[in-house]
Design goal:
about 20% helix, alpha+beta, about 180 residues
Length: about 180
C-alpha cells in the first residue's frame, strides 16, 4: 500500500489496518500524472476502457478517471447516460456518510467535480481524484461544496473512519477546472 495511506492510518497499537479498496489502488497507479507533462500515457490510461472524452488538456476528466477506477459498478439513470458529468456521480451506488473510500460529488463555479475521500480536516475533505491541478492528485476541498457521498453498490461498505489529516503543505482546490 502507498506510504501516504500508511501515514493516514498510522502504525502500532490502536490504529486501524490500512484498507485496500480497488478504486483507490487504481488511482495510486496514476497518482501524479499530469495532463500536459504525461499527456500520452494519461490519455492512453483514460482510453483503456474503450471510451473517453478525449484529450485531457481540452476537456474535464475527473468523471472519466472515476469511470476507470470503478469499471464494474452499475451506472443508474443520468450516471449511465453520461458518467463524464461529475455531478451525475451523486447517483452512484448507495448514500453513505463521509468515510474513507467514499465517492464524493462537489459543486464548483462552472459545474461539478468528483473524487474519492481519503481524509479530512475540520472544514475540508482530502480528495483523491483526476483533473485536480490538471493531474491525478490529492487536494483539500471545502466540505460545504460536497453535494453527495456515495458508496459503490458492488463492494460492501466497511465504514472506515475518515482520518484527520494535517493540512500543512497540502494543496487546496477551489475550482477543479
Amino acid at each position: 500500500m502507498a506510504s501516504w495511506i500508511a501515514k493516514l492510518f498510522g502504525k502500532g497499537a490502536g490504529k486501524m489496518k490500512e484498507p485496500v479498496l480497488p478504486w483507490i489502488k487504481e488511482f495510486e497507479f496514476v497518482l501524479g500524472w499530469h495532463e500536459v507533462r504525461d499527456n500520452s500515457r494519461l490519455a492512453k490510461w483514460l482510453k483503456s476502457d474503450g471510451a473517453t472524452l478525449g484529450d485531457p488538456t481540452q476537456l474535464p476528466w475527473c468523471g472519466d478517471a472515476l469511470e476507470l477506477a470503478l469499471p464494474k459498478e452499475p451506472r443508474p439513470g443520468r450516471l449511465g447516460e453520461n458518467p463524464y458529468w461529475a455531478k451525475n456521480w451523486a447517483l452512484l451506488g448507495v448514500a453513505t456518510q463521509p468515510c474513507y473510500g467514499a465517492v464524493a460529488a462537489f459543486v464548483r463555479p462552472s459545474g461539478g467535480h468528483v473524487g474519492v475521500l481519503v481524509g479530512q480536516t475540520a472544514k475540508q475533505f482530502l480528495v483523491l481524484g483526476g483533473n485536480q491541478g490538471d493531474s491525478v492528485s490529492k487536494v483539500l476541498i471545502d466540505k460545504s461544496r460536497c453535494i453527495a457521498t456515495r458508496w459503490p453498490a458492488t463492494f460492501a461498505n466497511p465504514n472506515y473512519a475518515l482520518p484527520m489529516v494535517d493540512p500543512t503543505g497540502q494543496p487546496v482546490s477551489e475550482n477543479e477546472a
